Structures are given as structure tokens and as C-alpha cells.
Amino acid sequence: MRGWHKEAEKQWDERAEWWHQSSEEMWERGSRKTIIPFVTTYMPKEGYIADIGCGDGYGSYKLCQQGYRVIGLDLSSEMIELAKNRRTHEHLHFQQADIMNLPFPDETFTGAMIINCFEWTERPLAALEEVRRVLKANAYVCVGILGPTAAPRVNSYRRLYDEAVICNTMMPWEFERLATENGFTVVDGEGVYKREIDNSIIRHLPTELKQAVSFMWLFMLQKR
């Protein structure tokens, strides 16, 4: 596990500037534009929210704009430096941290946002258990899991050649089952789709087919 996460930290350090160039577009007009409205529908603004896997902090910043007190956490020190340098507010802070070992006492947070982070963990169940540990009872957590059409699996393809990779291939329906079997209730979910997908057709599909063509699936979970 240590080798996996050290390599993930290194690779995301190297990608930090590239990510930063497109993060505002993603959160304002792109694939992440529906996340904050989804969060605000369920998550009360009192308390303390952890944005785990925050990248350069733009999503954390948008949460703060909505009235949340937020700490953004990321494995990459380069991402955290970008976040600290360019996003400032008295209710917004950033800290380098690994989802596998969060530096907070039990039941610290009243909510969490975790977008495209579990895919980069070697042991998703251990990561989920660590998240559950730092959440208060009945806390909400918004989780985004990349779907089949996101093509994130280019990062894990080389496993077919028995090469070590640092991106797992967990699908939304797998994460949903993992969460419900380990202390969470699924409160809601919605898909993010590529432009080519006809939304008038999507809304009539059962959930498993909606997930199967999704770019990303958003879960709203509640800690039991």
C-alpha cells in the first residue's frame, strides 16, 4: 500500500499544473458542474466539511462560497500548494493528507465530498472505513465514481501485462454495494454524461443502465 500511494502522490504532483489549468472549467461548466448543487440539496451548512481528494481546491472553494466551513485534503503536496496560493477564505483551509490515514480524530466532520478519489486507492474498503471513522453519526458524504465512459482505465490498462498500476477498475455499482455493506445508506444518486448521450432516453432507463453509460456517477451517502 505504501508503494502504491507514494507513486500516486508522485504522479499527481507531476499533473498538478495540468489539472489546475482545467479545474475551473470542469467545476463551472464541465463534468463537475452539477456536484455542488447536489451536495447543497442534502448537506447541512452547519459544521465542518472535508473535501477529500480536493486537487487544486476549486471544488472546496465552491463549497465555501455556498456557506460551508471546509478543509481540502489531497495526497499531492503540489496540488495543496496550488490550492493554498490561489484560494483563500477564513472558512477554507487545505492540508496534505492520504485518505488511507486521515490525521483527524474520530467523528470530526459533519460531511464530506470525495470526487474521483477512491479509484486511486489500492484498498477501497480500507479507505471507505477511514472516511467513516472521521464522520459524525448520520453525516452525509457525496462520492463521485468514474463510470465506464470516462475512460479512466487507460491508467490501469497495463495491469493486463502484469505491470503495477495505481488506478483500480472499480465501477459505480461495485462501490454502491461496498458502501451499503459497510455502514452507509445510499440516499440518492445521479449520473454525469458525455454530450453525445441523449438525456431524453437516459431518464427512462433503470439505474444500472444509467450507471453503465455514465461518465461519472454521484452518490449521496449517509453514515449509519
From TrEMBL:
Keywords: Methyltransferase, Transferase, Ubiquinone. Residues 51-142 form the Methyltransferase type domain. It holds the Pfam family Methyltransf_11. GO terms for biological process: methylation. The keyword NAD does not apply. One of its GO terms (molecular function) is S-adenosylmethionine-dependent methyltransferase activity. Gene3D superfamilies: Vaccinia Virus protein VP39. This is Ubiquinone/menaquinone biosynthesis methyltransferase UbiE. It comes from Anoxybacillus flavithermus.
